[in-house]
Every structure is written in C-alpha cells, then in structure tokens.
Specification:
alpha+beta, Alpha-Beta Plaits, four-stranded antiparallel sheet, 4 strands, elongated, Putative iron-only hydrogenase system regulator, Acetolactate_synth/TF_NikR_C, FeFe-hyd_TM1266, ACT-like_dom_sf
Length: 84
C-alpha cells in the first residue's frame, strides 16, 4: 500500500462555511480515521477541527485542496514519511 498517516488541521474563521466543510469531510470519509472539533471559548468566532487521516497522498491532497479554497478556512497537514 502507499497510504500515509497524518494529521490535518482546519481553522474556521467564517462559520458560514461549516456546512460546506462537513459535506467535503463526508465525501472523503474513507481517509478519515478520527475527527475532533473544538469551538474556541471566550466569544471568539473561531473553530478548530483536527483530523487523523490514513490514505494516499492523492486522496489526502484532494481533501485538503477542497477545504483550502473555502473563504475563511485555513488548512495545514503533516503526513508520515513512511508509507503503509
């Protein structure tokens, strides 16, 4: 297999994008091993989602690419160098 394991961090500053984000995550559910969402306290309108991924670099890149073009959404990923 050519799968990699990693983490994708998503920072959401535009809450109107949440439905689009959830739709994208649903489409790519096959590469998502786990998900944790944290609304930021103290009245800041920022939310953070961290996702553990297990998939090919193409599949993970498709996920992060679709998220990255959304306004008010920042995405970063870190993947294992080793393939599984």
């Amino acid at each position: 297999m050519n799968n990699r394991i990693g983490v994708v961090g998503i920072v959401i500053e535009d809450s109107q994008q949440v439905d689009k984000i959830n739709d994208i995550l649903h489409v790519h559910a096959g590469v998502i091993a786990g998900r944790m969402g944290i609304p930021h306290p103290n009245g800041r309108d920022v939310n953070v989602i961290s996702i553990v991924v297990d998939g090919t670099t193409d599949d993970i890149g498709s996920l992060t690419g679709k998220l990255g073009v959304l306004n008010g959404v920042s995405v970063k990923s870190a993947l294992s160098k080793k393939t599984y």
